[in-house]
Each structure stands twice: as structure tokens, then as C-alpha cells.
């Protein structure tokens, strides 16, 4: 499982690198004679770099409105302005847009003209962080791959808003005003290829319902979650990175094998109310338990295989994979028990 995940991430990185390099090569080979043409089309409030003619930089200009976007533009940067409305008029010719950054403006839901976003058929990345949205805007472009809505005032997710977003791989809703009631059993229906879901810094008291099955990264830090339901992670069998820092989890709120999940490689439970280390899987590589109420550590009890097996050097196939263990901010007194080192032979760092 570990090899598959890392191989997939490496392949994704290489593909993106090759794509970026190829696009850049095309831009760098443009004939300087065409630069004046690109410059003449450029809105006077913005900057159009001759070496990157498909990009339009209108960020940090104090703009209150979106200027007319030339047809050639793929990448549009409008962050750090005073924009309140998103209307159809500026985008009439912008049929090739792939990327829009509208972070740090003053956009409200009422300021987004009905249907304007869904008409951007080729849009892949939409950034609307640090605005004044009170709900997820809809409808959205069906080809969208990343949607970033962090640090708004979102308390409502309209029914079916994600139902057609089969290409979405990343959804960021952190630091909003979401309650448990906003996340229904069908809220994330349709997100069949979602890899990262960030709902940190909201007002959740329960684990969200019906997380998409292909999710690899689930971030739920800074909520008020108290209980992990029995078999919760069986519905998301690929989850690899799980963050539950700064919640209200206690020993009673975690099922006996709640985190004994073979897919989880990085588990973060810092700043909760645990008094003991919950059972973990032998595949886990990073475990964060700092700033809980743990008083002691017993390697024999927490070892995912028996200590007798762990002592057998020839039994490498079942050796626990834990490499990083953080326990500072608890009530544990050094030294580290010997059975911890016997069990977790691959440990590279222990913070206590």
C-alpha cells in the first residue's frame, strides 16, 4: 500500500513537471514580433508578461471590478483586490480559462451572477479563499479539479452542488462556519476522484458523513469532535493521511481498533484528551500524540505485533513501520521504555 501511494504521488509530480516545462518551452519560443499584439490586448490595469502570454496578472491593483479578459488567457490572477462581484461580461471572450485566483477579495454569494462560473467550461482550478461567501457557490464548472474556499463564512452547502464534479481531486473548506447539520449523507456525492478533503477549523462535533471512498488525505483539525464511530474508516479504505489535532477525543470516544487501519501512514492526534496510546496498525509510519494526558507508555501494549515476534530479526516482513513518534506535552517521564525500541525497530525520531 505504501509503495502504491508513493508511486502514484511521484508519477503525479513528474507528469505535472513535464507539462509545466513543455508549456514554458512553448512560451519561451514565441516570436518577439507578437509581443506588441499581446500587450495591446492587455487590460490597462493588469500586467501581461510577453514570455507568458496565456497569463494575466491583475493582483494587488485595488480593483473593484474584473476587467475584460482576453480570449488567449488561461491563467487569471485577481487576488488581493477589492472585487465584490463576479459577472458574466468580463468573461465573454475568456473561453480557455484554466485557472482563476480570486483570493482575498470581498466577494459574496449575491455578488456572483447566476451561472457565470458553470459557463467556464475549461476551468480546472478555482481559488476563492478569504472572501465573504456564506455558502458554496453553485453551479460550478463540471471539469473542476481543485476548489479552494478556505477562510470564508460558509455555513451551508447547497444540495447537489458537488454531484457533477467527478474530476475534483481537492476540496478545501477549512476555517469556515460549518456545523454537523451542513454535512448530510449525500453532501459529497459525486466526488468519485477526490483525494484531499480539508474541513479543519470549523464547528464540527461529529465525524462527517459519507466521505468519498477514494479520499487519501482527510484534515479535521480544530473542530470539537469527540467520537470516532465504529468501523468509520472502512468506508474510506484508501485514507493515508489523517489529521484530528485540536479536537476533544478521549479514550472512550475511540473504538478498540478505531485507528488500527492498514492504509493510514500518518496519524495526527495532537492536542486531544487521550490518556493512553490507541491501538495502531503495523503499517503506520508517523504518529503525533503530543499535548494529550498520557502518563506512561508500555511498548508491549501498543506494539501492533507481539514483542516476541518483534525481537525476531528474521521476521522482518511484519516489523512495525513506525518511524516518527511524538509524545511531548504529556506527563511521560523519560527514559523511553526499552520495549518501545524493541517493537519499533525502524524508529528514527522520538519526541518525548
Automatic annotation (TrEMBL):
Keyword Ion transport set for record: no
Residues of the signal peptide: 1-20
Classification via PANTHER family: AGAP008170-PA (PTHR45712), KERATOCAN (PTHR45712:SF13)
Lineage, uppermost ranks: Eukaryota, Metazoa, Chordata, Craniata, Vertebrata
Record protein name field: Keratocan
Coarse class of the protein's main subcellular location: secreted
Listed transmembrane segments: none
Keyword Secreted belongs to the record: yes
InterPro entries cross-referenced by the UniProt entry: Leu-rich_rpt, Leu-rich_rpt_typical-subtyp, LRR_dom_sf, LRRNT, SLRP
Amino acid at each position: 500500500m505504501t509503495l502504491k501511494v508513493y508511486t502514484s504521488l511521484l508519477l503525479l509530480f513528474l507528469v505535472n513537471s513535464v507539462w509545466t516545462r513543455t508549456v514554458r518551452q512553448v512560451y519561451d519560443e514565441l516570436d518577439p514580433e507578437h509581443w506588441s499584439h499581446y500587450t495591446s490586448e492587455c487590460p490597462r490595469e493588469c500586467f501581461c508578461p510577453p514570455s507568458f502570454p496565456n497569463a494575466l496578472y491583475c493582483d494587488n491593483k485595488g480593483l473593484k471590478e474584473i476587467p475584460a479578459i482576453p480570449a488567449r488567457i488561461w491563467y487569471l490572477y485577481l487576488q488581493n483586490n477589492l472585487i465584490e462581484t463576479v459577472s458574466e461580461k468580463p468573461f465573454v471572450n475568456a473561453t480557455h480559462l484554466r485557472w482563476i485566483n480570486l483570493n482575498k477579495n470581498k466577494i459574496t454569494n449575491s455578488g456572483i451572477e447566476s451561472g457565470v462560473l458553470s459557463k467556464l467550461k475549461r476551468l480546472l482550478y478555482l481559488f476563492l479563499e478569504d472572501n465573504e461567501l456564506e455558502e458554496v457557490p453553485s453551479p460550478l464548472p463540471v471539469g473542476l479539479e481543485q476548489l479552494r474556499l478556505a477562510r470564508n463564512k460558509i455555513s451551508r452547502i447547497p444540495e447537489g452542488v458537488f454531484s457533477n464534479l467527478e474530476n475534483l481531486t481537492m476540496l478545501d473548506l477549512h476555517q469556515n462556519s460549518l456545523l454537523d447539520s451542513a454535512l448530510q449523507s449525500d453532501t459529497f456525492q459525486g466526488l468519485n476522484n477526490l483525494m484531499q478533503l480539508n474541513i479543519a477549523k470549523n464547528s464540527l462535533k461529529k465525524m462527517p458523513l459519507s466521505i468519498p471512498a477514494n479520499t487519501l488525505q482527510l484534515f479535521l483539525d480544530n473542530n470539537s469532535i469527540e467520537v470516532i464511530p465504529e468501523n468509520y474508516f472502512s468506508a474510506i479504505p484508501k485514507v493515508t493521511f489523517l489529521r484530528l489535532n485540536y479536537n476533544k477525543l478521549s479514550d472512550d470516544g475511540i473504538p478498540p481498533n478505531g485507528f488500527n487501519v492498514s492504509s493510514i501512514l500518518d496519524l495526527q492526534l495532537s492536542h486531544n484528551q487521550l490518556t493512553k496510546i490507541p491501538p495502531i496498525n503495523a503499517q503506520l509510519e508517523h504518529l503525533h500524540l503530543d499535548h494529550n494526558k498520557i502518563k506512561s507508555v508500555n511498548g508491549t501494549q501498543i506494539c501492533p505485533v507481539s514483542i516476541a515476534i518483534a525481537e525476531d530479526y528474521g521476521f522482518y516482513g511484519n516489523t512495525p513501520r513506525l518511524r516518527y513518534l511524538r509524545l511531548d506535552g504529556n506527563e511521560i517521564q523519560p527514559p523511553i521504555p526499552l520495549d518501545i525500541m524493541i517493537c519499533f525497530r525502524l524508529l528514527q525520531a522520538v519526541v518525548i
